[in-house]
Design a protein that fits this description.
There is one protein chain. It contains 18 helices and two strands. It is mainly alpha-helical. A two-stranded antiparallel sheet has the order 1-2. About 14% of the residues have low confidence.
């Protein structure tokens, strides 16, 4: 809608800036505890956020989402030096540069919509201070929690005094009507301009499919896959997807926020499915299950490994290795027998557990999938999935181009359809502007809705002069 269709406005630039900011933030949280890496990407995330601030007012969403994710990492017990440094660099650099934008000014430190990430930043500094004291004094977990409670209580007291002193002076700005519209009914924000805009109404399921199409079906699958493989970095996708869906459901205009995360999650699902299909056919990658990776003679890879082991046993130069291997095998067998006996005694003592049936079913499915019939079924399924993917992809591509054709019409001259089916051009807008040009003084001020105001002051000024 913002690029393929030919439309170009500040959202077109801001979407790229938003994705760049989120990428740098996630990259700084990867599981490589390399100081230079997460410091570099922490700085880059702050710079990308400044680009976002300069492009679009939706930077508030970016700031709050990263703040929510940072707080979520603390709640999940994932606070570390890496998380502290990444968020601190992002917030300090991003906020300092955002203040330099004239339209923004000191809003990041005054607006109620942006004070939440500021509170997270202060909390991170307190947590890091407690961690430094814990390491230096080698405190126990109990002592550490006691220290945290004391320090946070002191911080809370200082904040209360700060708020009581500055609030009467009007330091803090109120929530904007658009933000209020996300939490109350869109017709009750108190701002007639916001209340009357159709884009501020709640979204419907039809609107999601109209703009996201098959992404609506694939994104939930990717969401579950990410949820099953959480890390410091990937957990951000969960926060992003949940938040974007919640706000877009409240306001249909914000469906554009779901497009990037929907594409990411759908791409994860499609990529996992495609890789699984490849694993069923390529002999060099059996998907972690060597029982059905066949060689040229039709024997399984496990048979090949058995033949190799027999050759090693017949080699007189491998006497010591063979004896060592036998000892290791006897040791592993003994350990397995002990574990099996202990497990059997536990079951006989406590009775059958509630997971016995599930584990038995899982074992049966795994055994069936390793057979020749199971391999045939899996490869048949891959063929079906590839054909389905090709069909869905072609349909999605055609839909995108068809929608782009509908959206690329000029916003001034629109197409209409008569009762007999004929398509005509509706030029009422330009005719109205021509009437204004011919029947009003040149220095007139026209009261108009914002879209028409933009067109009058921008697009048509040069035309009128000509």
């Amino acid at each position: 809608m913002r690029s393929v269709g030919g439309g170009f406005d500040n959202e077109s630039v801001a979407t790229s800036a938003m994705v760049l900011t989120f990428y740098c933030w996630m990259r700084s949280l990867r599981n490589d505890n390399n100081l230079s890496t997460y410091v570099l990407f922490g700085v880059l995330s702050g710079l990308a956020y400044f680009y976002m601030v300069a492009a679009w007012g939706g930077y508030i969403f970016v700031l709050n989402l990263i703040g929510v994710h940072a707080a979520m990492l603390v709640a999940l017990g994932r606070f570390s030096d890496k998380v502290w440094a990444s968020y601190s660099l992002f917030y300090v650099i991003g906020t300092f540069l955002a203040i330099q934008v004239p339209v923004v000014g000191w809003a990041p430190l005054k607006s109620l919509e942006q004070l939440g990430p500021c509170g997270v930043f202060l909390g991170f500094q307190v947590l890091q201070l407690c961690e430094m004291i814990r390491r230096r004094n080698k405190l126990s977990p109990q002592q550490t929690w006691k220290l945290r409670v004391q320090v946070f209580a002191a911080l809370a007291g200082a904040l209360v005094i700060f708020v009581v002193f500055l609030a009467p002076a009007g330091y803090f700005g109120p929530l904007s009507s658009r933000v209020r519209g996300l939490f109350v009914q869109h017709t009750r924000t108190g701002n007639p301009l916001v209340d009357s805009v159709a884009e501020h109404q709640p979204a419907s399921s039809r609107a999601y499919f109209q703009y996201l199409h098959h992404v609506c079906s694939l994104a939930p699958v990717g969401f579950v896959l990410v949820l099953c493989n959480l890390s410091d970095s990937s957990s951000f996708l969960i926060a992003w997807g949940t938040t974007a869906y919640f706000f877009s459901h409240k306001m249909v205009r914000l469906i554009l926020l779901t497009a990037p995360i929907g594409s990411v999650l759908a791409g994860i699902a499609a990529g996992r499915i495609f890789v699984w299909c490849l694993q069923q056919w390529l002999p060099w990658n059996d998907g972690g299950d060597g029982a059905y990776a066949t060689n040229e003679l039709g024997r399984t890879a496990s048979n090949g490994s058995s033949n190799t082991q027999q050759q090693d046993d017949n080699d007189p130069t491998n006497g010591k290795g063979k004896e060592k291997k036998r000892k290791t095998t006897r040791k592993n067998t003994a350990g397995t027998s002990v574990q099996a006996a202990a497990s059997s005694r536990s079951r006989s003592k406590n009775g059958n557990t509630s997971f016995d049936g599930i584990m038995s079913l899982k074992s049966a499915v795994e055994s069936a999938s390793k057979s020749k019939e199971g391999l045939f079924l899996r490869r048949t399924l891959t063929g079906f999935l590839v054909m389905l993917g090709y069909t869905v992809g072609t349909n999605f591509n055609n839909y995108c181009w068809r929608l782009s054709k509908d959206l690329s019409n000029p916003s001034i001259i629109i197409h209409g359809r008569l009762k007999d089916g004929r398509v005509v051009k509706v030029d009422d807008y330009r005719e109205a502007y021509w009437w204004l040009r011919d029947n009003t003084p040149e220095d007139s001020r026209i009261m108009a809705w914002w879209d028409y105001g933009y067109q009058i002051t921008g697009k048509f000024r040069a035309t009128f002069e000509l």
